[in-house]
């Protein structure tokens, strides 16, 4: 509703200004808005685009300063008689012109080159200073290939760990939270206010404040270094219960009465009647759970203390800790970690926005 | 590929649980306890988790903060009274962190006290401006909203690594600087620059979240109020300060409280981006807690718990004062 109102174009102050002046389009404030928004797009999106583009560069291209925007690589040609493709150079000749030559090998300040158009002519010795590599925009997957070959099996393990935590935690969150929400919305019983307040009170307890005792409890269950050690502390989200309860309150009680008449058990009513009807709210809770579990950092950092149980996020952070940063592989891995989820959620943005607007909590 | 098969196996087991195990169990429980007690059956899993991982930890935290040694199990720890708090707060000169017994705590505290107001002001200012722009009748609103929201979905580690790649010595930013004829700067090595970028990067990452809330608030302001202002030929600035801001106040209050609570707890992005450095220029209070309790050997759980209780107390007092002030204003 609110959105429709704003679409009507009366919702904004500056828009109103336009009307008063009797001009409908292209007021200065419109220009200012567009300039601001496009500047914003550049600042918000360019960094991510930059990393994604960089991940397709060759290591030589990555080491360049100033950096190129698009990935560039030296053009190569296959010349008869040579197994490997040879890099192509533009060479200045003595008469002031240029010709394209392929480099066979380089010795000190001289390079042996060959004319790809006329390989029979034999090798030509060229001063390196006279030769410029011929470059073109080229997306190479070398960084990804190196990443997979140096830490391939490990990488699948990290992906598995992250996926397992995300999926298991989300399923448990959905079931536990919806059960509690069902009890708190569809029954009148002594202590329901106390239970609701106890659950909502945990909103006031920031997870970082109780980090040490959470670790102790996880340790007492023997779950340090175990994936369940980061799943269990996060499953009872107060916002999930609250959101689902508010939604379930709108489901008419007559439906439940009718099911009771048909001798459905309470569990069946919950599982077969209320849960399917709560699908939209469940979707919002699921999206938030997936997002926060996939991106979780501090609790996994403390609990998952062995490399075999690292999540993608921990692995990514540890990559950067190592003495020598391999930027080529780091960029490839950053892109791999960020993009799938980000793109999936571009499409789910609307649900996320409505979820944030209604609860105010991620 | 084995990861995928293991995952599907685990999922299949989970999916089979409700029909095979849970349903007969719940039927039995209903027969045993009667319908009246069923809500508690539905509540118990969630309440157990809440008690175990949210409410109980608060009390254990208090216990940790008054006991010493590096033992994890609470009953193994000797009682030390207020010693942990004394260690934290012990300073010869409170204006000079290096005279304190835990100078890192005071540096983290000082950084947090500077970081939070600057970050919150920047965050809310920019989020409000963006929300106002997005609330206008413009083309491509959905596109713009998506772009501004996009970084919220990125993981903190990805955010930090992205900006590290841009801010490093041979990064894109220095490339731009040399292109317009300026000297490259080693951004994350200079303390003030690192602090600025800490604020910038966290605002960049979380601004979209607050923009969405503010946008919803703006859209709920009824149109006829603006129509009435139009009749009175009020200036746009007047409309903004007399209508938009007052009507947005409840939303702004929520945004402000959320923003401060989350700002005080900033950790992930900065841990990866600067690691608290250079030196201790960007170390915040949560990183101090993490380092004291988990990273530095021997692990000092007592000190970490004391510091986190102080943090919790500050957050609680702040929230209560803020709510009280807001309530006072709306009645006054």
Task: Describe the fold and architecture.
- The complex is a heterodimer of chains A (362) and B (332).
- With 362 residues, chain A is an alpha+beta fold.
- Chain A has three domains: 13-54; 76-133, SH3 type barrels (Roll); 142-359, MetI-like fold (Orthogonal Bundle).
- Helix content of chain A is 59%, strand content 10%.
- Chain A has helices spanning 2-7, 13-20, 28-54, 59-62, 142-186, 192-201, 211-220, 228-231, 238-249, 253-261, 266-277, 279-295, 298-303, 312-321, 327-359; strands spanning 72-74, 76-77, 86-92, 98-107, 110-114, 124-127, 131-133, 135-137.
- In chain A, helix 5 (142-186) packs across helix 9 and helix 10 (253-261) packs antiparallel against helix 11.
- The relative contact order of chain A is 0.09.
- Chain B is an all-alpha fold.
- Chain B has two domains: 2-85, no CATH class; 93-331, MetI-like fold (Orthogonal Bundle), CATH 1.10.3720.10.
- Chain B has helices spanning 2-33, 38-65, 83-89, 103-134, 141-153, 156-167, 172-179, 191-219, 223-231, 236-264, 268-273, 285-295, 301-331.
- In chain B, helix 12 (285-295) runs antiparallel to helix 13 (301-331).
- Chain B starts with a helix and ends with a helix.
- The model of chain B has no long low-confidence stretch (mean pLDDT 84).
- The chains are: A alpha+beta (362), B mainly alpha (332).
């Amino acid at each position: 509703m609110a959105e429709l109102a704003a679409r009507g174009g009366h919702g904004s102050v500056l828009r109103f200004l336009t009307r008063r002046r009797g001009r409908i389009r292209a007021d200065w404030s419109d220009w200012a808005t567009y300039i601001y928004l496009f500047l914003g797009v550049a600042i918000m999106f360019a960094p991510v685009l930059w990393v994604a583009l960089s991940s397709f560069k060759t290591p030589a291209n990555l080491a360049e300063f100033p950096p190129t925007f698009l990935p560039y690589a030296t053009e190569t040609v296959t010349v008869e008689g040579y197994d490997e493709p040879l890099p192509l150079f533009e060479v200045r000749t003595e008469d002031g012109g240029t010709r394209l030559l392929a480099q066979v090998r380089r010795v000190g300040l001289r390079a042996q080159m060959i004319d790809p158009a006329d390989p029979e002519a034999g090798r030509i010795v060229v001063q390196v200073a006279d030769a410029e590599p011929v470059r073109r925009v080229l997306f190479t997957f070398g960084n990804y290939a190196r990443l997979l070959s140096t830490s391939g099996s490990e990488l699948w393990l990290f992906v598995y760990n992250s996926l397992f935590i995300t999926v298991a935690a989300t399923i448990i969150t959905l079931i536990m939270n919806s059960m509690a929400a069902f009890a708190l919305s569809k029954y009148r019983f002594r202590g329901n206010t106390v239970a609701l307040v106890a659950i909502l009170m945990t909103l006031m307890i920031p997870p970082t404040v109780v980090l040490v005792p959470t670790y102790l409890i996880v340790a007492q269950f023997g779950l340090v270094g175990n994936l369940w050690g980061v799943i269990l502390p996060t499953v009872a989200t107060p916002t999930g219960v609250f959101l689902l309860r508010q939604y379930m309150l709108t489901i008419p009680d007559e439906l439940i009465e009718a099911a009771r008449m048909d001798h459905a058990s309470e569990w069946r009513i919950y599982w077969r009647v209320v849960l399917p009807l709560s699908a939209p709210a469940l979707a919002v809770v699921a999206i938030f759970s997936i997002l926060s579990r996939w991106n979780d950092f501090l609790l996994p950092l403390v609990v998952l203390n062995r490399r075999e149980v690292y999540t993608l996020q921990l692995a990514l952070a540890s990559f950067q800790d190592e003495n020598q940063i391999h930027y080529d592989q780091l960029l490839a891995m950053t892109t791999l970690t960020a993009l799938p989820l980000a793109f999936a959620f571009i499409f789910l943005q609307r649900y996320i926005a409505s979820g944030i607007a209604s609860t105010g909590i991620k | 590929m084995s990861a995928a098969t293991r995952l599907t196996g685990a999922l299949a087991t989970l999916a089979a649980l409700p029909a095979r195990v849970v349903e007969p169990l719940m039927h039995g429980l209903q027969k045993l306890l009667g319908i009246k007690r069923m809500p508690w059956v539905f509540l118990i899993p969630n309440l157990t988790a809440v008690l175990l991982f949210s409410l109980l930890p608060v009390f254990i935290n208090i216990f940790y903060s008054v006991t010493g040694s590096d033992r994890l199990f609470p009953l193994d720890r000797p009682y030390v009274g207020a010693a942990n708090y004394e260690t934290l707060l012990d300073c010869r000169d409170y204006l000079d962190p290096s005279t304190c017994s835990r100078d890192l705590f005071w540096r983290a505290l000082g950084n947090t006290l500077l970081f939070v107001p600057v970050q919150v002001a920047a965050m809310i200012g920019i989020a409000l401006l963006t929300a106002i722009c997005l609330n206008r009748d413009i083309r491509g609103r959905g596109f713009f909203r998506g772009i501004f929201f996009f970084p919220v979905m990125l993981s903190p580690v990805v955010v930090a690594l992205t900006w590290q790649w841009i801010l490093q010595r041979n990064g894109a930013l220095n490339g731009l600087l040399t292109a317009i004829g300026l000297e490259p700067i080693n951004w994350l090595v200079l303390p003030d620059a690192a602090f600025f970028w800490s604020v910038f990067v966290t605002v960049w990452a979380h601004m979209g979240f607050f923009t969405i809330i503010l946008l919803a608030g703006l859209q709920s302001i009824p149109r006829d109020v603006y129509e009435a202002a139009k009749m009175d030929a009020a200036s746009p600035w007047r409309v903004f300060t007399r209508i938009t801001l007052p009507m947005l106040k409840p939303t702004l209050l929520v945004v402000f409280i959320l923003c401060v609570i989350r700002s005080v707890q900033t950790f992930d992005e900065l841990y990866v981006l600067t690691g608290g450095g250079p030196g201790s220029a960007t170390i915040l209070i949560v990183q101090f807690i993490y380092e004291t309790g988990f990273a530095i050997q021997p692990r000092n759980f007592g000190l970490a718990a004391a510091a986190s209780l102080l943090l919790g107390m500050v957050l609680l007092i702040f929230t209560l004062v803020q709510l009280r002030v807001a309530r006072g204003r709306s009645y006054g």
